[in-house]
Amino acid sequence: MLVDSQIHLWEAHSAGRPWPSAGRQAAHRPTPPTVDETLRVLDASGIDRAVLVPPSWEGDRNDVALAAAAEHPDRFAVMGRIPLHTKTVRVLPTWRQQPGMLGLRLTLHSEPWRSGFQLDGFPWFWQEAEAAGLPVMVYAPRLLPSLALIARRHPGLRLIIDHLALPLGRTGIDAFDEIEELLALALLPNVAVKASALPCHSREPYPFADLHAPLHRVFDAFGPARVFWGSDWTRLPCSYEENMRLFTDALDFLSDDDLRSVMGDGLLNWLGWAS
């Protein structure tokens, strides 16, 4: 079972469905991908399933992703967004009753979410997500020590650190200047990492040799059951297949059993997505 841990679907900004003003320059491409286009990309590389992650530039919306999951429940499921500033505690106990919804995703790299997190850390959110048994994906470069504290306070909370917490725009060795803080999180059994969109942080063409050594350290620390491959394909600087082959062909330190976990089984287990 091959499972992509991150794909975005969205609709264009329009008068009937406006984006927040801050998001109008952030989309990965000017034309949103369609469901059919996404399925063609997945099918061409033999990908069985994908986790749909609603993008931050649309605001806190899940409708496009949930509609795709409802239409193709055997291919898609969703890690949804919530408006953190409104303290929507009451929705979390029934969050997974939404067809296709697996958990939650936070983007703490941009405003207003980053300032809100730095102000009070959203303690109500972590407490309620843990109580509801909801896995949480979070993209939070430069905030890893704070996430470590949260993971320790909430041992029943399943956290996934997106994109290895690599900052947008950083490449080569500069992209991994926070790797020690990331590896320290491996000591916490309720923390996993998403090895997604990594070619965006390479200075080299396939097989992206400058990623191999830091990835080896990540796998040694977290183990294959807590490292999840993904594409974020709408912003890749390479082909979808090359992004996949970085893991399936180029990383010679991964065994066949490791690959089964990294390429899908580990993620399915962590998210509770029945195989």
Automatic annotation (TrEMBL):
Domain Amidohydrolase-related: 3-265
UniProt-listed SUPFAM superfamilies: Metallo-dependent hydrolases
Taxonomic superkingdom: Bacteria
Family annotation (Pfam families): Amidohydro_2
Record family assignment: Belongs to the metallo-dependent hydrolases superfamily.
Protein name in the entry: Amidohydrolase family protein
Native source species: Amycolatopsis speibonae
Organism classification: Bacteria, Bacillati, Actinomycetota, Actinomycetes, Pseudonocardiales
